[in-house]
Amino acid sequence: MRREYDIDLLIRKFKEKDKIALARLISIIENHPEKASDIFKNFNHIKHDSYIIGITGSPGVGKSTLTGAIAKRLLKEGKSIGVISVDPTSPFSGGAFLGDRVRMTEVSLDPNIFIRSLASRGYRGGISRAVLDITLLYEAFGMDFIIIETVGVGQSEFEIYNLAYTIIVVMVPGYGDAIQMQKAGIIEIGDIYDVNKKDLGGADIAAHIDMMLDDSTFQGGWRPPIVQTNSITGDGVDELIENIWDHKEHIELSDLLSEKKKIRFAYKIKELLYYKIDIVLESLINQDELNHITTKALENKFQIYDLVHDLFSDVKFERKSKS
Amino acid sequence: MADGKIRVLMSKPGIDGHWRGGIVISRALRDAGMELIFGGFQNVEQCVESAIQEDVDVIGLSIHSGAHFAYVKRLLDLIEEKGLTDQFMLLVGGVIPARDFSELKKMGVANVYGPGTMTKDVVEFIKENIKK
Ligand SMILES: Nc1nc2c(ncn2[C@@H]2O[C@H](COP(=O)(O)OP(=O)(O)O)[C@@H](O)[C@H]2O)c(=O)[nH]1
Ligand SMILES: [Mg+2]
Fold first, then answer.
1. Per-domain residue ranges of chain A
2. Which of A83, A98, A103 to mutate to test the pocket of ligand 1 (most atoms within 8 A of CB)?
3. I want to staple A14 with a disulfide (CB 3.0 to 4.6 A). Which of A21, A184, B20, B38 is the partner?
4. Which DSSP state fits A57?
């Protein structure tokens, strides 16, 4: 059993708003980045922009449940939403347990929502390489909003910073989480801080974040608000959404939004360049050579810099002059 | 990264008791390198919609209610209605009496796993039949 995907047919159906086609185009883009341009060239005339919201925080704080709660309210206002939930790929098996969608069952049948779970698959930088491409597909599909959920540990939050226009950092009652967040630098990236699981307390942690924010300087004159939610009952979610609107308006009026859009593409362009260089490198340096210098490094570990340098001594990068 | 991973939706029709079997299998599939989308309790529509949006290769149903024939029939009908016949490998596990296996397979279920199933058998079956 193996499905063959016909891109032209899928594009036709995609333009008729067929979710099966959207789902399959996502798979193609995820598995075959080299086919992305064949897909995107069909959208050249589309000018639609989606508003991109990022939700980040430690595992288990309630990001997926909150995504469902936010989506429920936006759907009620007649908005369409594309969700991308990223969970880590196991470095040992290459497999992944994607447990986000299960928290969004309530909204999952609404015709105006599309939810995709994504495994990080060990691409450079933590979050899946495919995320930006999927946001482009969602924009071509005409989604009003895109919500990206990622686990905020290690590197991934920097990428969400490069992708989303409003970032919500989710925490839970208890200081451990806040301190961990601060260490990881996450406390600097939020546009809105949400202390979820309000039913378990959290007023103290909200005050703590408030204090930490007092010590920070804010770019562009936005002081991140702090809200408390219970994403299961929906308590506080309306207030959170009000804050999203406020932030959206703020960055639209101050023109920060176009800055953020620029960052989004600059980031992708860099990534595409690295991808090309990877391919060039693979063609220039073969596995045998790599194995050879690895063996040599085992003999003398202090040589590794020189070994790599030597490997490049006969590699010449140059640009063909365009005439 | 040229080749895709096998994607599996694990779904449980209705709220019919324990999950352990489904979770054990889910972990085994992840450990075998597959991407496992945990659907939890879902009705037929939610299950099919998840399978579509996640573009899975396999739908695994964990059924303990005894209503396997009715559920599988409705699921396959809906899949047909969407024009997706034969696009998903359908696996059924749970408390299914052995005498029902062949009837389920006739309906279009690729394989049935009763109590005492070894997870490696499920892994092998999927890997053998889905080439990625
Ligand atoms: N008590 C309480 N539990 C919550 C709340 N929001 C989410 N949860 C639970 O927290 C667990 C993890 O939620 P999930 O959305 O999967 O978290 P994620 O890993 O951050 O996406 C689940 O059992 C949720 O039901 C909340 O506001 N209060
Ligand atoms: Mg989650």
1. 1-41, 46-254, 269-311
2. A103
3. A21
4. E
For B15-36, what is the mean pLDDT? Answer: 86
The CATH superfamily label for domain A46-254 reads: P-loop containing nucleotide triphosphate hydrolases (3.40.50.300)
Does some domain include residue B1?
no
Give A234: exposed, middle or buried? Use CB within 10 Å, 0-12, 13-18, 19+. middle
Amino acid letter, B83? G
CB distance A102 to ligand 1 below 6 Å: no
Q: Is the C-alpha dihedral spanning A60, A65, A70, A75 positive or negative?
A: positive
Question: For A197, which DSSP code?
Answer: -
Residue B49's domain spans which residues?
Answer: 7-129
CA of B54 to the centre of ligand 2 (A): 15
**Contact criterion met (CB < 8 Å) for A20 and B82:** yes
Domain assignment of residue B27, yes or no: yes
Specify the CATH number for the domain of residue B70: 3.40.50.280
Interface predicted TM-score (ipTM) over 0.90:
yes
Q: Answer yes or no: is pLDDT of A126 > 50.
A: no
Identify which of A83, A243, A195 has the alpha carbon closest to the alpha carbon of residue A148: A83
Q: What would the pLDDT profile of B61-93 be if each residue is shown by its tens digit?
A: 998 877 889 999 999 999 999 999 999 999 999
Which of B3, B24, B29, B30 is the mutation pick for testing A, counting most A CBs within 10 A?
A: B30
Q: What share of chain B is helix, strand, coil (3-state, %, to 5)?
A: 45, 25, 35
**pTM listed for this prediction:** 0.91
Contact across the interface for A93 and B42, Cβ inside 8 Å: no
Please report whether residue B2 resides in a domain.
no
3-class SS string, B22-71: HHHHHHHHHHCCCEEEEEEEECHHHHHHHHHHCCCCEEEEEECCCCHHHH
* Cα(A128) to centroid(ligand 2), Å: 15
Q: Are A73 and A60 in contact (CB under 8 A)?
A: no
